[in-house]
Write a structure and sequence with these properties.
Number of helices: 12
Helix content: 25-40%
CATH architecture of one domain: Alpha-Beta Complex
Largest sheet: 7 strands, mixed
Radius of gyration: 25 Å
Distance between the termini: 49 Å
């Protein structure tokens, strides 16, 4: 029976997919045809080691011993599942995981057209539960969650000792309920607590429009993840733009944690000509399979790709292929770095092992795992994109000096209210800028940052981030293509 490819493991359901644990890319040779692959200089595979029957007998003896003699009664099924989990943990691979029947059932629910949760991709990195990226316009994004945030606790309970699926199941929940996440963030000395109201997350994965600049019309297609319908959505929007004779195209995979390999393949076949492979798959014995498009000619317009640290796995396959096979520029920040391929294997009782089987390589044979892909044009977003949610236990006021004041000053600076300094000292100038902000928002102009003012600041920051003029990476791509 053909296995269903898994799409995203979301925090708010479980999302495995080419962002996998982040990008869990699933591979199915049958789907990628007899076609376009050639086997290249790899070693002839040596047969798998013969099964050590004495070792298996040892496992059986341990099972019998514990089942019959342990001081407390133990269920045999629990021992079997513990043994499987133990073998997988020995691999020290966060992307190879075991899902029991109940977990697999919950996991498959995320394949539906909508799901309920916070809308973020999570992964296990060096034993830490880490956000890959929040989804576009999701509750997680609106609450201020950012890529690389490390989750320390969920509703007051530490995640230490939990595997990825246990942690994500605690994060997920019904629409309208609230989950409280304690987060450690780079460049912040102290953890912050973020409350996220769960909601229904639609699986719309492609957004498009035509942008006009300098007399040119530039097509813009944003891909938020690679699901079963993504390639179809993308092709429809691309055809519409090409019918409008666009002068260039931007493909935006920022914050895209990945998804189905078959999905990104179908998109790449629209752009990568047959001269070079769009991806290579390397087996454990070193043998490489190269996959090609049948496209005879390049697009008649220039293309640029937007990437950032939230672009993972399938997004990196797309970025690497368009850069190395077609020479299209990558604009933004270095990507996440997920270069392995997983395949779900049913165990016959409703449970499932998702095992890392291959490495994927770029057209030129580069393995980007834990390295990421560097942009051709590195562009950092304005400071306002790097602000943090405020933690207001008591109002922030003049003469205070702490990290929360610094966060607030960075928000005020990004919003154009000139706090005078951004080092965490609440000066007279900062007080004046707070009052100016409060007056603009119709709040009591006390000059102090209470919970109401903090909430208004955070909302204003989100609105400012949504303004296209402030997206320097996008503006750079538009200007670049308009000159081609």
């Amino acid at each position: 029976m053909k296995q269903k490819m898994i799409a995203l493991l979301m925090a708010g359901s479980i999302a495995a997919g080419a962002g996998g644990t982040y990008a869990v890319l699933e591979w199915n040779d049958a789907d990628n045809q007899k076609a376009q692959h050639e086997e290249a200089e790899g070693n002839e595979g040596s047969p798998a080691d013969e099964v050590d029957l004495d070792s298996l007998d040892k496992v059986g003896r341990a099972y019998d011993l514990i089942l019959s003699s342990y001081v407390e009664e133990v269920e045999g099924e629990e021992l079997v599942e513990g043994a499987i989990q133990g073998m997988l943990s020995k691999l020290e691979d966060p992307y190879s995981v075991y899902m029991d029947e109940e977990t697999m059932k919950q996991f498959n629910e995320t394949l539906e057209s909508t799901f309920e949760g916070i809308g973020a991709e999570v992964s296990m990195v060096d034993g830490k539960v880490v956000i890959v990226a929040p989804f576009k316009d999701s509750p997680a994004e609106k609450a201020g969650i950012k890529p690389n945030d490390q989750i320390l606790s969920i509703d007051g309970e530490s995640v230490e000792g939990l595997d990825l699926f246990e942690a994500t199941l605690k994060i997920r929940g019904e629409k309208g309920t609230v989950v409280k996440l304690e987060i450690a963030r780079q460049n912040l000395r102290n953890p912050i607590t973020v409350e996220v109201k769960r909601d229904e997350i639609p699986q719309i994965t492609v957004y498009g429009e035509v942008k006009k600049f300098g007399g040119k019309e530039i097509g813009y297609l944003e891909i938020t993840s690679f699901s079963e319908e993504t390639a179809k959505e993308f092709k429809v929007k691309l055809a519409d733009m090409e019918n409008q004779d666009v002068d260039g195209l931007i493909i935006d995979v920022r914050g895209n944690p990945g998804g189905l390999l078959t999905s990104v393949e179908e998109i790449l076949k629209e752009f990568v000509s047959k001269e070079k492979p769009y991806v290579q798959i390397q087996k454990r014995n070193g043998e490489k399979l190269r996959y090609f498009s049948t496209l005879n000619k390049d697009k008649p317009y220039p293309v640029a790709v937007l990437i950032d640290k939230g672009s993972a796995s399938a997004s990196e396959i797309l970025a690497g292929a368009l850069k190395e096979a077609e020479g299209y520029p990558l604009i933004g920040e270095k990507t996440f770095g997920k270069g392995t391929v997983q395949q779900p294997v049913p165990m016959g009782d409703g449970s499932n092992i998702k095992l890392t089987l291959f490495k994927w390589l770029t057209p030129d044979g580069n393995w980007i795992h834990n390295e990421g892909i560097k942009p051709d044009l590195e562009v950092t977003q304005p400071t306002i994109f790097h602000t943090h949610p405020l933690q207001i236990e008591k109002p922030l006021e003049k003469e205070m000096n702490n990290e929360q004041v610094q966060n607030a000053q960075q928000m005020l600076e990004g919003l154009g209210f000139a706090p005078g300094r951004t080092d965490g000292y609440f000066s007279a100038d900062t007080e004046t800028s707070v009052m100016a902000f409060q007056n603009q928002k119709g709040l009591n102009a006390s000059g102090k940052i209470d919970a109401e003012t903090a909430s208004a600041l955070e909302a204003a920051v989100i609105e400012e981030m949504k303004k296209e003029k402030n997206d320097l990476q996008l503006q750079t791509a538009i200007r670049y293509l308009s000159k081609q």
